[in-house]
Design brief:
Layout (H helix, E strand, L loop, with lengths): L1 H16 L11 H30 L6 H4 L13 H25 L3 H32 L9 E3 L4 E3 L16 E2 L4 E3 L2 E3 L6 E3 L3 E4 L4 E3 L5 H33 L2 H5 L4 H26 L1
Antiparallel strand pairs: 1-4, 2-3, 2-7, 5-6, 7-8
Helix pairs in contact: 2-6, 2-8, 4-5, 4-8, 5-6, 6-8
């Protein structure tokens, strides 16, 4: 009898073990799959940033972010990292509004979810608009591309022999000097004779008396910038799109009728926080270091 009881208990335990319907770590299937996706995406971004660090430290020179990212809308220059700091602030604040949307979902407040998700969408759209302006400035005004990096860096002190238009200084005109590790921008100027834009490579003399001219910076700088920030921007765009769809569903009462405490809002919240966290690392690695 005792043996039968033990065997019956073991069969019961086995049946309960394989019965299904139990949520690992208290997380639903949807949340678990979202965590798997975010983990794989984290490895992808980590690979990109590690590649950036490897290429950067293998180059003899690298443009200084303070010089490259120093423009503001309205023609304002020499304001290092102000614009990208504003972009970062907007994205972080959108995470705060996302937290409030999830909280309102847990409380079953449909209009609260709609309101705070709406503000999250506004924050994401503002970030994308800022990134579009940054790309437009770098590509259209400063002529940076994935194959051309007009931002070069001097390796020693010296003095320019030509002005910013590529013309020799007039007699008595004070020449511009530069120091080692100073980043410069090679600009384009239209040739009056041909009507074509040409790069202006200013000539200079180093403190050792050597004559040289401005050279393009490492190609990897532009390629990595557009690829990494573009890949992140695609994630933000996708997030804004999904947020909009979920907001419409929430406003229609779909999630409230399901009675699952707005789990879909919580899942898109996980994705949005991940996107914000990745940007913090991009901001640190590409813009600050």
């Amino acid at each position: 009898m005792a043996t039968d009881a033990i065997m019956s208990h073991e069969v019961q335990d086995e049946n309960e073990l394989w019965a299904g319907g139990k949520e690992p770590f208290g997380a639903s299937y949807g949340k678990l799959m979202m965590w798997y996706f975010l983990l794989s995406d984290a490895f992808t971004f980590a690979g990109f940033l590690i590649s950036y660090g490897t290429l950067r430290f293998s180059m003899p020179t690298w443009p200084l972010p303070d010089f490259v990212f120093s423009s503001l809308p309205g023609g304002i220059h020499h304001a290092p990292l102000i614009f990208v700091t504003f972009m970062t602030f907007v994205l972080i604040m959108s995470s705060v509004t996302m937290v409030r949307a999830v909280q309102e979902g847990h409380n079953g407040n449909r209009m609260g979810v709609v309101k705070w998700m709406g503000w999250t969408i506004v924050g994401g759209a503002m970030f994308l608009s800022c990134q579009a302006w940054e790309w437009t400035t770098l590509i259209g005004t400063e002529h940076m591309s994935v194959i051309t990096n007009p931002f070069g860096t001097h390796v020693t002190d010296g003095v320019y022999l030509e002005d910013e238009h590529g013309h020799p200084y007039a007699a008595g005109e004070k020449a511009e000097t530069f120091t080692a590790h100073h980043t410069y921008l090679i600009e384009k100027e239209k040739d009056e004779a041909t009507g074509k834009e040409e790069w202006i490579h200013r000539k200079f003399k180093t403190k050792d008396g050597e004559i040289g001219q401005q050279e393009f910076g490492p190609k990897a700088f532009g390629a990595l910038f557009f690829f990494i920030t573009g890949f992140h921007g695609f994630h933000v765009f996708s997030g804004v799109l999904f947020l909009t769809i979920i907001l419409v569903n929430a406003a229609s009462g779909l999630y409230q009728n399901r009675g699952n405490h707005y789990e879909m809002v919580e899942k898109i919240g996980l994705y949005w926080h991940f996107v914000d966290l990745v940007w913090v690392f991009v901001f640190l690695v590409y813009y600050l270091l």
